[in-house]
Predict the structure.
Amino acid sequence: MTEMRASATFRNDDWSLSDDGLEHRETGYFIGRGVLDARRAEGLWDWPLQMAEKRWCRPSLFREAFLAALDRFGLERDAALGHSFALGFGIRAGQGAGEGFLSLGDLLRPAPRGAEKPVPVRLPARAAVRA
């Protein structure tokens, strides 16, 4: 376990929030205050996508701490934040849409009627004909 960078203003089982940023309590992985709202080129939030790649990151605890950090530092949430969590973590056990998570189905809505492309009909392969 690592030493805290400053006194914690929020803490859950995995994360501590201080005036400096978020720190994973077991690994010491640190996300500085100044980069919490980092975005990717397409406008998605970087940290939910990066943390989804970490096997040790529990989505619900990261999400709780990340949202606490945004609130603490006055950083605005937007629709891209929900999309970023959904694309990174999807819906995991115990995290329903009511908690701010979106399903991939909500992100990838079917095309409106009339816009569907025809599906090609595939014929079954013919058995080889013996001469």
The chain has one domain: 10-107. Helices lie at 46-51, 59-72, 79-89, 104-107.
